[in-house]
Amino acid sequence: MKKIQISPSILSADFSQLGNEIKKLEKAGADMIHVDVMDGHFVPNLTIGPPVIKALKKNSSLPFDVHLMISPVHKYIESYSIAGADIITIHPEATDNLLVSINKIKELKKKVGISLNPETEVEVIEKFLNQIDLVLIMSVNPGFGGQKFMPKVLEKVKKLDKIRKDLKFHFDIEIDGGIDLNNYKLAIEAGVDILVSGTTIFKSNNGDIKKNIDLLRSI
Question: Which residues have a catalytic role annotated?
């Protein structure tokens, strides 16, 4: 049985205690830290920039799974790499040349992720799947935490899982948006390897982070 990885989203953390929240996540058994970067342009919200990531990185030895919801994204890739991102995930709609941006992330020795919004089809990135490390499936429209999970995106997960099995590709499939204790197994059964969760990890079971991480990993 494959090991499900948990990437807690700090979008749902207490922003006045972010350093301590990240330490709690690591102690509770998280596999990585998911950082949502929003620019108020590509998505209708603003979050954090490279200086904050650089400061937070000092509080954890876990990989930083940084999702850039920025347009145009290419010119910011290096800044987030220097700040401490270990995985850099971008949207195909946010760059003029996806291959050039993929190669830029590789040159910086970081893992490459591509994210698909709910309405973006797998075919948009299919020819790049042998060159990347991760596909992030958005199961809500990006921009805000706490939204309701969209089951229809699981068809994309299944399609991606079939492609990688048929062609022996090695990218991970990650899902983000409304993942909770009622639907996480559906995502795993569809082929997901990495679950991003914010509200469920920080708020469920009276905020018992370890219990919530363990529950999301159980099959």
Answer: 36, 176
